Amino acid sequence: FRVFPPKSLSLSLLCYYRKCFLCVCVTVATFYSTLGGPAIAHGLNETQVTHIITSRELLETRLKAILIEVPRLQHIIIVDNTPTTWPGYPRGINIHNMAAVQKLGARPDKAACERKQPLPSDTAVIMYTSGSTGIPKGVMISHSNIIAGITGIAERIPNLCEEDIYIGYLPLAHVLELSAELMCISHGCRIGYSSPQTLVDQSTKIKKGSKGDTSILQPTLMAAVPEIMDRIYKNVMTKVEEMNCIQRTLFILAYNYKLEQLAKGYNTPLCDKLVFRKIRALLGGRTRVLLSGGAPLSATTQRFMNVCFCCAVGQGYGLTETCGAGTISESWDYSTGRVGGPLVCCEIKLKDWVEGGYGSTDKPHPRGEILIGGPNVTMGYYKSDPKNQEDFFVDENRQRWFCTGDIGEFHKDGCLKIIDRKKDLVKLQAGEYVSLGKVEAMLKNCPLVDNICAYANSDETYVIGFVVPNQKQLLALAEQYSIRGSWEELCDSKAMEELVLKVITEAALAAQLERFEIPCKIRLSPDPWTPETGLVTEAFKLKRKELKTHYQDDIERMYGGK
After folding, report:
1. Domains of the chain: which residue ranges?
2. Quick one: CATH architecture of 346-425?
3. pTM, rounded to two decimals
4. ∠198-202-203 over CA atoms, to 5°?
């Protein structure tokens, strides 16, 4: 298997954490490398970091400029063996390569050092959030929190054993990846490391004719965020559209037939072998469990994954504050839009939210803000204001709870469905409440939309949107209406905005959005939103504050300002 050098602070820190977790009581702080200099410096100083493990690339591109702002830092360990000298760095900071560290660890006087075993209540990780709103907060995760979380997750994955192979490519500062990998380590599963740019044969950093990491590793287990799964779905469906009439008809017939059989509880081995084998091979051909988390997965994408990749696709729900654990759907549950029942490590209850109109006595399903309680609920935010700690509380039975801010409803079989989020709810001038997350989830299913951010101002009467269009679909639409220009010119074209808005409106009506929920004006973005741009988190969640700042001029234009 390929060996990849750490690409982020989080990856290298977790490698170090694995040793700490097993033998000594060392607290590790994780940061996304894309947080930006000021945010990373804030976290390093807040946690009083003395040692950093990172890569040479990140040291030179991300850390060097802020080292002067981190006075307590003493040692930096580079995860390679060159170079041995580092001119131009602040005095008092020692930089070591891995060979020097290994040599130091092999010294006889070091081998006899007493190792202090951690207590369950000791802080194992201070995990800094990706900062979708405001300054990143450090979530304090104890050893017992981690054990509880991975125990709950592992119980929901059938037949987890040493024969399983997991492919890791998400940032290890993401609680989903942290939990997934520690779960695999605890069960003896093998782990192969990849990256989003080398994951499949068609990835951007895979040379044409070469194989991607999934083809080589052939993993049986995989975790993914919906953004990645949506990309796979759209890429495959684009290829389906390029098939000749006979091939496309055969694919559609097989797809619909398998959907019917899955609903009845049957398998379709012949269809799997003859029609879906090549699609399944995109992920190596052996994937048996695909876990989605971090954001809602669209019903269309989930059904596609179930059918074409011939494996269980489970949606999970959890937060950094609950150590990634909350709910996971059962492997046999092919329903869509739900995140499963509570894991064995926690309890879930719903709290009335009067302002939003959600109540635990609602019919046919009780609704309300989701509260998660149990040993997986973390210890709070590190050195944070008391106001930020208000979402944590302890009940009369001494059980710790976290108020998630998400709105859910329970179905009769005990499965949870996420239906709204308190922070995404905006009240328009006329009094209607608009769930921005709901609007975005519905419109992402439109083939013309690669990404979308809905925006609404309480002083206005309508919703607007920022759209990253699918390049192939937009170019085809432009050609259909004989509109010429470069990619940037097309995205800046008022005529193209109107055409895309028309397509989006039709998709919104088909998805049964209310008229007041449908964006009335949009702005097309020629550049995709990536963690590097600072407009989305590492898990590709929208950073609404940054997006608002980035598109402030367009907001004023679309709302009739100067």
Report:
1. 1-142, 156-342, 346-425, 428-558
2. Roll (2.30)
3. 0.78
4. 30
Query: Which is more confident, 450 or 225?
Result: 450
Residue 332 neighbours by CB under 8 Å, 6+ apart:
265, 312
Give dist(CA 449, CA 504) in Å, integer. 8
Q: Confirm whether 1-142 and 156-342 share one CATH topology.
A: yes
Give the chain's radius of gyration (CA, Å). 24
Q: How far is CA 280 from CA 7, 128, 192, 218, 349, in A?
A: 28, 35, 19, 11, 38
**Quick check: 310 and 276 in contact, CB under 8 A?**
yes
d(CA 214, CA 201): 8
**Is CATH 3.40.50.980 the right assignment for the domain spanning 1-142?**
yes
CA nearest to 177, candidates 216, 221, 138:
221
For 23-72, the DSSP string reads: HS---EEE--GGG-HHHHHHHHHHTT--EEEE-HHHIIIIIGGGGGG-TT
Q: Residue 493 is encoded by which pair of tokens?
A: 């074209």
Dist. CA 187–CA 387, nearest whole Å: 39
**Residues 124-162: tens digit of each pLDDT:** 999 998 655 557 889 999 999 999 999 999 999 999 999
Instruction: Name the superfamily (CATH) of residues 428-558.
Output: ANL, C-terminal domain (3.30.300.30)
Between the alpha carbon of residue 38 and those of residues 202, 287, 385, 532, the distances in Å are: 35, 40, 19, 15
Q: Can you name the CATH fold of 156-342?
A: Rossmann fold (3.40.50)
Q: Is 417 helix (H, G, I), strand (E, B) or coil?
A: strand
Q: Per residue in 179-211, pLDDT tens?
A: 999 999 999 999 999 988 898 888 878 888 899
